[in-house]
Amino acid sequence: MRTSAPLGVTRIRPGSLALNPLKRLASQTAIYGLSSVFGRLLNYLLVPLLTYTFAPAEYGVVAELYAYMGFFAVVLLFGLETGYFRFRSREEWPPATVYGTVLRFLAIANGAFLVLVLFYQGPLADLLRHPENPEYIWWCAAILALDSVGAAAFARLRAEERAARFATIKLLEIAANVGLTLFFVYLCRHAWLADPESLLGSLWDPRIGVGYVFIANLTASLMKLLLLVPQLRGGLGQFDPALLRALLRYSLPMVIIGFAGITNEMLDRAALKYLLPYDPETNMAQLGIYSACYKLSVLMALFIQAFRYAGEPFFFSYAKERDARATYALVLNWFVIGCVFLFLLVTLYLDLFQYFVGAAYREGLHVVPVLLLASALLGVYVNLSIWYKLTDRTLLGAGVALIGSAITVALLLWSVPRWGYEGAAWAHLACYGSMVAISYLLGRHYYPVPYEVGRVLGYLVFGVALYLGSRVLVVQLGWSAPLAGTLCMAVYLAAVVLLDGRRLLRRTAPATS
């Protein structure tokens, strides 16, 4: 006997997902993706501003502290975002109780973290070698706490498929962040240079410097939380201690997975100043160069982020359909096609993308193709990771992530002192490649999905071959880079249409033997 849907919760009609699962996933990804792309493009405009305004060593401070924030963002969320999606789909607890339990726990835990950092910001600043600006530590901690609580409200919007409201609030947050950064770093700084006693000039303190980036971010995070009040207000009254214990048992391994993921993604920027074999000033400059060039892989990161927003709820909600596994395989095919397109878009037109960073940072452009390919493999791993999420084997998933982290740490320690930040880029690629292989093998055992491995690998290899072919046309045959890039991109799109054009028109995943 089917239970009725709780008040205020929309039940998906039986079979409705099967009508057009790829269209549904694509539409959700498009909404999240368009908002993320547009928002990140706004945010991306800050890269030229900051890299043309601050020296590489100064910009390296921003990159370093945001790398540390990435680690703490995972810990302070406690894996409860994924836990919320998992337990919300069960019938033991009402969705409102699941949400309220998650929200209250996050509010209490992050409040305690904020108080702790307030008392120890001075020693922490000394430990990180930034004793002259302990306020940076406090501002970063406040951003983390606000964002962690806000993540619960955003998870609720995703679960309820309210992508438009999700996207609107995200865009407003990013617009506020970009606008305030422009206000402080451009308007107030230039006013101070012209007349320190002017109204705008008095708002710029050169001792804070790049710290205005954190001030802008903190203000935008606070505004975002105010916009999420309707979602937050509805959850504080619901709490179940027994449910919290069950949630934490499921979710805490996700912290290990997330922490390992951040290790793989951001440890290089946190550790470069310690591992590079130069003097401290040069190390910070190299960190700044590497971080700025890393930003050129933003389009791939946006695509993966948008897919995560739409994909995680989709994978859980579609798991009971008869064609679920065949659909997941088809999703991976199209995901890889999209990743290779973005890889080619940036690498084939890198001569144009390079102007988004200052001239002092362009010596690191040669690592961009490696970083893009590594990001593509990360996206493949995101797809493959459904095996441990759908079978509740999050501890095994944590093991895969920890193996990836061990590879990252070992390769950073070995390669960065020898090859500088180039070694960090190749460490990314080796790490994600290993995680894809291990996750695929474990998934075949615990949750077999008929992935078309040959087709997936073929597209990745084909993309790399087209990039290398474009370099031959430019370097050896003297073609212009835009012409060579356009030819190679046309070849790729033609191949996609010939090989997979028919399958794009299908309403459901193809039957598999």
Provide an overview of this structure.
This protein has 21 helices and no strands. The protein has 513 residues and is an all-alpha fold. The chain has a domain of 254 residues. The longest helix has 35 residues. InterPro entries: Poly_Biosynth_Transport (IPR050833).
Which characteristics define this entry?
0% strand; 513 residues; mainly alpha; globular; 78% helix
- In angstroms, what is the radius of gyration? 23 Å
Strand content: under 5%
Q: How many angstroms does the end-to-end distance come to? A: 33 Å
Name the poorly predicted regions: 1-19, 507-513
Could you give the order of the helices and strands?
HHHHHHHHHHHHHHHHHHHHH
Helix content: over 70%
Keywords: Cell membrane, Membrane, Transmembrane, Transmembrane helix
Transmembrane segments: 30-53, 65-85, 97-120, 136-155, 167-187, 207-227, 247-267, 287-307, 328-350, 370-388, 395-417, 423-442, 454-473, 479-499
Subcellular location: Cell membrane
Main location: membrane
Give the topology, please.
Blueprint: H1 16-19, H2 21-44, H3 46-53, H4 56-77, H5 80-88, H6 95-127, H7 135-159, H8 163-194, H9 211-227, H10 229-233, H11 241-275, H12 280-294, H13 298-318, H14 324-348, H15 350-353, H16 368-384, H17 386-390, H18 394-419, H19 421-446, H20 453-475, H21 481-504
Helix pairs in contact: 2-8, 2-13, 3-8, 4-7, 4-11, 4-12, 5-6, 5-7, 5-11, 6-7, 6-11, 7-9, 8-9, 11-12, 11-18, 11-19, 13-14, 13-16, 14-16, 14-20, 14-21, 16-19, 18-19, 20-21
Protein name: Membrane protein involved in the export of O-antigen and teichoic acid
Membrane topology: Multi-pass membrane protein
Organism: Thioflavicoccus mobilis 8321
